Amino acid sequence: MTKKILLVEDEALIAESASLLLEDEGYSVTIAYNGLDGLAAARDEMPDLIIADYMMPRMNGLEMIENLQQEGIVIPTLIVSSIPQDKLPQQSDRALYDDYLGKPFLDRELLRAVRQLLANGSAK
Q1: Could you give the domains of the chain?
Q2: Burial of 44 (C-beta count, 10 Å sphere; 0-12/13-18/19+)
Q3: What is the pLDDT of residue 110?
Q4: DSSP 72
Q5: Is the pLDDT of residue 124 over 50?
Q6: Mind listing the pLDDT tens digit for each residue in 52-83?
Q7: What is residue 34's three-state secondary structure?
Q8: Distance from CA of residue 104 to its chain's centroid?
Q9: Which pLDDT band, with edges at 50, 70 and 90, does 92 fall under?
Q10: The pTM is what?
């Protein structure tokens, strides 16, 4: 069965190139270009994995994931950001996502993270 990935990324070039890479690997990819659209797509699609940029318009990636979790929707999540992981908001935010990938990232790094999260599922 084809695994579904929700890619939430406001930079169109990154979203399109990552989507093509993932589709070439056999995944079904839905793209949302901001956090609010990502929230709606996650509810509708119920993907196997969410890849979300941290800094986005309308709602950041962590807020989007937190909203889903408050609704009881827990999906393995990879946060991508040009902000170093140790500079992301602290408190309980680390529990919101399962892995982090710094931008810019290599194709092989993205694929490694995706394969690992899909194989292991959520760490929560």
Answers
A1: 4-120 (3.40.50.2300)
A2: exposed
A3: 97
A4: T
A5: no
A6: 999 998 899 999 999 999 999 999 999 999 98
A7: coil
A8: 15
A9: low
A10: 0.92
For residue 30, give both structure tokens.
């839905």
Compute CA distances 56 → 59, 76, 99, 105, 111, whole Å. Answer: 6, 19, 18, 18, 22
Q: Please, which residues have CB within 8 angstroms of residue 112's CB and are 6 or more apart in sequence?
A: none
Cβ-based neighbours of 121, under 8 Å, separated by 6 or more: 76
| Contact in structure between 62 and 54 (CB atoms under 8 Å) | yes
Strands 49-53 and 77-81 turn out to be parallel
Q: Quote the CA–CA distance of 42 and 17 in Å, as a whole number.
A: 21
Tell me the pLDDT tens digit for each residue of 98-115. Answer: 999 999 999 999 999 999
Residue 98, Cβ density class (10 Å: 0-12 exposed, 13-18 middle, ≥19 buried) = buried
Residue type, 35: G
Query: What is the C-alpha to C-alpha distance for residues 12 and 32, in angstroms, rounded to an integer?
Result: 10
What are the tokens at 67? 């909203």
CA angle 76, 93, 29 (to 5 degrees): 30
